[in-house]
Structures are given as structure tokens and as C-alpha cells.
Amino acid sequence: DGFVVIGKGAEQMANVLSKGYKKSMKEAAELMNDAGETFEDMGKAFQLAYGTTAKTFGPVMKDLGAGATEIAGELKKVFSTSTKDVAKVLDDIGESPEAVAGALKSAYKQSAKQVAQTFKNMGKDATNIAKGLKSAFKQSTKDVAKTLDAVGIDSGEVGKALRYAYKQSAKNVAKTMKD
Q1: At what angle do helices 141-150 and 126-137 cross, to 10 degrees?
Q2: Tens of pLDDT along the chain (179 residues)?
Q3: What DSSP element (H or E) covers 120?
Q4: End-to-end CA distance of the chain
Q5: If you count Cβ atoms within 10 Å of the first and of the last residue's Cβ in the chain, which end, N or C, has fewer?
Q6: What share of the chain is helix, strand, coil (3-state, %, to 5)?
């Protein structure tokens, strides 16, 4: 007799693997992924069976091949995770500033300024913020300079970010900052 409700099947599978077979969450995730369970169903089931949080489920998803945008979307959907918390999870599992910015733009519909503010609140330096904005929003040097300034980043840090994220010469940075 098969499972009637798919979500219930994931819950039952997680409980059996956890309690019956003493499998770790990571082992259960690998088995359930191989069985075709979705990240959403696994996340919901693991909350009950393992007390899983976004912070503990993000690395498991990455290990199973999920990219930053997929991880962000699933953590938002399953755990109602805030943008700051998703950005932290993605950063903690080694995602690049470019990947994190793209994930926040895609999963949370964040603007360049919102992403810059999230990164700043996380303690990211201007260069990493600029790299994320350049990649996710295709921002020009002038646009990145304006966005960094709008979130209160010091002009010296803005100049350094343009130098390293955009490989700008001192002359070009000076011209961008003047405009």
C-alpha cells in the first residue's frame, strides 16, 4: 500500500530513518533525495523528525547539489527565512558574493540597494558588495558607486571597491567618483 499524501510520506520516511534506522539528517537527506523527495518535503519532514532549521538544512541542500538560488528559495518557502538569515546561511556554506546577491535578487526580489544593505548589515566589505551587485544586477561602476553611497559606505571604500571589483585604474575611479 503506497502513501496517500506525498508530504505525509516524507514525514513518515524521515521518522523511520531517524528513529528506526538511527540515520543522521544528512544520511536521511541523501536517501530521501535518491528516492525522489523534493527539498521542500524534506525540509518540512526534517523540522519534525530532526528539529532542522534553515541553518542546518542549507548545507545539506548544497551537499546534494543545490545552487544558491534554489537553496534561498527553499529556505524562504519551508522555514520562512529572512533575507539576512538566508544570506548568512549561503555565506556560511561558502557561496560567493555573486551567488548570494543573485539568490537574494531571485528568491526575494531584492533590489540592488536592498542587497547592498543586507551585505553591509552582515559586515561584508565594499568590494564584496560591489562584486555581488556587478554580477547579479549588471551594475556599471557609476551605478555601484551610487548604490554603495546610498547605503552609507565611505567614499574611500567605494573607490577601493571599484578598483578591485571592476579592475578600475586610479584615473577611472576618480572620474567615476567625480560624476
Answers
A1: 130
A2: 344 444 468 999 999 999 999 999 999 999 999 999 999 999 999 999 999 999 999 999 999 999 999 999 999 999 999 999 999 999 999 999 999 999 999 999 999 999 999 999 999 999 999 999 999 999 999 999 999 999 999 999 999 999 999 999 999 988 988 87
A3: helix 112-121
A4: 70
A5: N
A6: 75, 0, 25
> Which amino acid, residue 172?
N
| Angle between helices 97-108 and 83-92 in degrees, nearest 10 | 150
Query: All 3 cell numbers of residue 144?
Result: 555601484
Count Cβ atoms below 10 Å from residue 169 Cβ, excluding itself.
11
Total number of residues shown for the chain? 179
pTM: 0.92
Residues 90, 100 contacting (CB under 8 angstroms): yes
Distances in Å between the Cα of 148 and the Cα atoms of 101, 116, 136, 158 are: 14, 7, 15, 7
Is residue 168 packed enough to be buried (19+ CB in 10 Å), middle (13-18) or exposed (0-12)? middle
DSSP 8-class letter at 16? I
